[in-house]
Write a structure and sequence with these properties.
The chain is α+β, with helices and mostly antiparallel strands. Helices cover 25% and strands 35% of the residues. The longest helix is centred in the N-terminal third of the chain and has 11 residues. The radius of gyration is 18 Å and the shape is globular. It starts with 14 loop residues before the first helix and ends with a strand.
Length: 265
């Protein structure tokens, strides 16, 4: 991988979460297959590490935590692709209801890489299509290009690696298997060939449910604490944060909140 496409990584300090995560009962990848939710409603919430640690204490008896080879906070690296004129980014910025996102994602602790297409429908559902690939390389192989031709609209197959992310992910599964939750921490954003940034004391919770209005334990706790759903795309916010020449009007509120509430470097 050349320098312009190198993904930022940082050594995660999970000491603050380790004690409380050890109190969750573990679940394996195979067991978690019961709650894949590939056709789902997603909702995201931004909060501080301190708030997250406190929430873990409150929900530890209601959720399993994913454990892979003894690790409960997995490393993820991603490369995002867009058209030469950034149509995927612009569609999200402009609030287009029917939009797509394309990435390669490395699930480091599982030693697996997928090429993934995320399609947000005009009904509010997120559908994910993916194929396993050989590695996290910025260039798309012939087989990958053929796969994209079958799953992307015509005219959106001229793609370029634009952006990379690195983060730690904790995955929770409700004990009745109706919800999966991911928590991302230690986020690093790298706009290839331009600039990079890191977010400290910052976490993103994403609830993934079959039913948009189902009131799970975690959804209830977040509401009680005054932490409300917020639109947040790591791809879009990271690029808007790093690339001043990109259209960013619709993201200014989120960017200002992040600069005020969370440590950015």
């Amino acid at each position: 991988m050349n320098y312009d496409h190198e993904i930022l990584t940082q050594t995660a300090d999970d000491v603050s979460f380790a004690d409380v995560l050890s109190e969750f009962e573990a679940i394996s990848l195979d067991e978690m297959d019961q709650v894949k939710l590939m056709n789902r409603f997603d909702s995201k919430f931004c909060l501080t590490s301190e708030e997250l640690n406190s929430i873990f204490e409150e929900i530890k008896n209601d959720y399993f935590v994913l454990e892979v080879e003894g690790i409960r906070s997995q490393q993820y690296n991603s490369i995002y692709y867009d058209t030469p004129d950034d149509q995927f980014y612009i569609s999200h910025h402009n609030g287009r209801a029917n939009r797509m996102k394309l990435r390669k994602r490395e699930y480091t602790d599982s030693d697996i890489v997928f090429l993934e297409i995320k399609h947000k429908t005009n009904k509010g559902k997120t559908r994910k299509t993916r194929m396993e690939v050989n590695g996290l390389e910025p260039e798309l192989s012939r087989a990958e290009k053929e796969y994209l031709k079958q799953h992307l609209p015509a005219g959106e197959t001229e793609l370029k690696a634009k952006f990379g992310t690195s983060f730690r992910r904790i995955t929770l599964v409700s004990r009745n298997f109706d919800e999966r939750c991911t928590i991302d921490t230690d986020l690093c954003f790298n706009s290839f060939g331009t600039s990079s940034s890191k977010c400290k004391d910052f976490a993103i919770i994403e609830l993934k449910r079959d039913g948009q209005k189902s009131q799970t334990k975690l959804a209830t706790v977040l509401k009680q604490r005054g932490i409300y759903q917020q639109n947040f795309s790591k791809y879009c916010i990271g690029r808007a944060m790093n690339e001043a020449d990109l259209k960013r009007n619709q993201f200014k509120g989120t960017l200002m909140k992040m600069e005020k509430q969370f440590a950015l470097v």
